[in-house]
Specification:
Elements: H1 2-10, E1 14-20, H2 38-45, E2 47-50, E3 53-54, H3 59-68, H4 72-75, H5 105-111, E4 115-121, E5 139-143, E6 164-166, E7 169-170, H6 179-194, E8 201-206, H7 218-221, H8 232-245, H9 269-303, E9 309-315, H10 328-337, H11 355-362, H12 375-378, E10 382-385, E11 394-396, E12 400-401, H13 405-412, E13 421-422, E14 425-426, H14 436-439, E15 452-457, E16 460-465, E17 468-472, E18 482-486, H15 502-518, H16 530-574
Helix pairs in contact: 6-9, 8-11
Length: about 575
């Protein structure tokens, strides 16, 4: 029996990479949330959770770094495609999709005998050469764009078309589709089909929950009836206390009052009931995802694969605060295609979102949310479970970064990094560091205290160095100025130390300038507004295809009328 156990321990582990979409720092139960996430919490109890894990502030850049270990400015996603200033397009690092010079962990694992699967959100390109079959995935069923309806096959926003692809070919969704259920079904299907040859597998399971549109089966949303009637400020404070009690942050951590958060008590009663239901549906959507994740875990336990499987759970960025009704064309699009009746929110045919008030609670006790460079946008829950030799119920507070995941997975599989060469060509080297020694208790940190780690996306910028961070956020959330914070003592970013520690502030500004130079980060144009840029992109990508043929026909008709009129006028003059 001992020999069998040793052989099993030496076998290359299966890897399940679980990514939630737009989950706030304290949404998960194990991170202080009131939402029911028993299966994610169980992974935390049998593994390690990280309270200082950082991503990019939006979807594609995070996913590009997650799969490659390469900074987003070097892998093609220096900006979101729909939010990218026109003058950036085509410049180095600004492709708007994952470039071929950034090698995915799936490619490297597949080369060494792993089965590789992806189900769910892709958002790294939708042309044939950028789809999963050309990025190392043996089987795939993916939503190519940012999101789509969770009940049926239609886009969530008029700039995208809700395309789904199965193994690189256009695909249709079943009639009984619900996103979290379907994505889990596909993951199980792929793993089961490949189990016959006893090869290890890498499964990238990328859920749409809790991205806009916020939708969930009523039986999950109804678990939260009345829970949010006290409003977002009360929830933000309650979560802060639970995060403190769990030891995730210092007990005296303060919170900023975000200017975009409205006064709950000033809302009319009907508006409060509507807003409370939106958060109930959000919680239901998160719980539904956890429920279906539980089905995947149960399957792995029943087949005997669970004990040799490593699980990584994370969110791609902080909570989404956008209120689509502030953008007139988007409000029109939603109301033309869905209902927003309070009692129907979450159901098939209904559209919901949580807006900045609930988003500020979802990221509690942190500052800002998705799109910006505050901790509420960049710091998300991370849980790693199933690694041999790691402690259970462990909490790690050291800084780790999304680019550290890919090298960690490679070391787990016993595969060396590519070192900038792949299949006899130069490629982008991985920038992250493996976390394995830390996970096994052999090291206390992944990054040296003096190692600068830069970040920029659509003009919102940051640089981390040990416990310190400098950050610049643009309007309307920020003031466009650099600030310095000690994240070990002040994760809520409430006390600017730039005047108290001027030498450190200057050193970190120099570090950021070096990051900009080394990664060819382009300066954001004066007056840039990501909402206006998104609307401009929408008009060119969506409206123009709709109107170009009618406009051309109208031009032909007008030209014909003009020529006919001119001919008749000339004929009268001749006669």
């Amino acid at each position: 029996m001992a020999a069998v156990g040793a052989q099993k321990a030496a076998k290359a582990p299966n890897i399940v990479l679980l990514v939630g979409d737009d989950w706030g720092f304290s949404d998960v139960g194990a991170f202080g949330g009131e939402i029911r996430t028993p299966h994610i919490d169980a992974l935390a109890r049998t593994g390690m959770k990280f309270s200082n894990f950082h991503t990019a502030a939006t979807c594609s850049p995070t996913r590009s770094m997650l799969l490659t270990g390469v900074d987003n400015h070097r892998n093609g996603l220096g900006a979101m495609k729909d939010l990218m200033p026109q003058e950036f397009r085509g410049k180095p690092g600004y492709l708007g999709y994952l470039g071929n010079d950034a090698i995915t962990v799936a490619q490297l694992l597949k080369d060494q005998g792993y089965h590789t699967y992806v189900a769910g959100k892709w958002h790294l390109g939708h042309d044939p050469e950028t789809l999963p079959p050309n990025r190392g995935f043996e089987r795939s069923f993916i939503q190519a764009h940012g999101s789509s309806d969770n009940w049926e096959q239609k886009p969530w926003i008029f700039t995208e078309n809700g395309e789904w692809f199965a193994d690189g070919k256009p695909a249709s969704l079943p009639k009984d589709y619900y996103s979290s259920k379907f994505i889990t079904d596909k993951a199980i299907e792929y793993i089961d089909a490949g189990a016959k040859d006893d090869k290890p597998f890498f499964a990238y399971v990328a859920y749409q929950a809790v991205h806009i549109p916020v939708q969930a089966p009523k039986e999950f949303s109804d678990h939260y009836r009345g829970m949010y009637d006290a409003g977002w400020n009360a929830l933000r404070e309650a979560r802060r206390q639970r995060v403190v009690d769990l030891g995730l942050i210092p007990k005296d951590t303060k919170m900023v009052n975000m200017a975009t958060t409205a006064d709950w008590n000033a809302l009319p009663k009907a508006a409060q009931l509507d807003q409370a239901r939106r958060m109930e549906v959000y919680a239901g959507m998160a719980e539904a995802m956890d429920f279906h994740l539980g089905r995947l875990i149960d399957y792995l336990k029943k087949t005997g694969a669970y004990d040799n499987t490593v699980f990584i759970f994370m969110s791609d960025n902080g909570a989404e605060a956008v209120d689509p009704y502030e953008i007139a064309p988007l409000k029109w699009w939603i109301q033309a295609n869905w209902t927003d009746q309070t009692e129907r929110l979450g159901e098939r045919g209904a559209y919901s979102f949580i807006g900045p008030g609930w988003a500020s609670a979802a990221v509690s006790p942190l500052s800002t949310y998705k799109q910006w460079a505050g901790e509420g946008a960049l710091r998300t829950p991370l849980i790693v479970s199933g690694i041999a030799g790691m402690s259970h119920q462990a909490l790690n507070k050291s800084f780790v970064h999304v680019t550290d995941i890919a090298p960690t997975l490679l070391e787990l599989a016993g595969i060396p990094p590519h070192q900038g060469r792949y299949h006899d060509r130069d490629v982008e080297p991985m920038r992250g560091n493996s976390m394995l020694a830390l996970l096994q208790g052999k090291s206390e940190k992944v990054h040296a205290a003096d190692q600068p780690i830069g970040y920029e996306l659509q003009g919102n910028s940051a640089l981390f160095r040990g416990d310190y961070k400098i950050v610049l956020n643009l309007a309307p959330v920020g003031d466009g100025q650099w600030h310095l914070y000690d994240l070990a003592q002040d994760p809520g970013e409430t006390l600017d130390l730039s005047t108290k520690l001027p030498a450190l502030h200057q050193t970190m500004l120099q570090d950021y300038a070096a990051y900009v130079h080394d990664n060819q980060v382009l300066p954001i144009p004066q007056g840039y507004d990501y909402r206006k840029q998104g609307l401009k992109y929408a008009l060119t990508q969506w409206l123009w295809p709709l109107v170009k043929w009618p406009l051309l026909l109208a031009a032909v008709v007008l030209a014909s009328l003009y020529c006919g009129l001119k001919w008749r006028t000339g004929k009268r003059l001749r006669t």
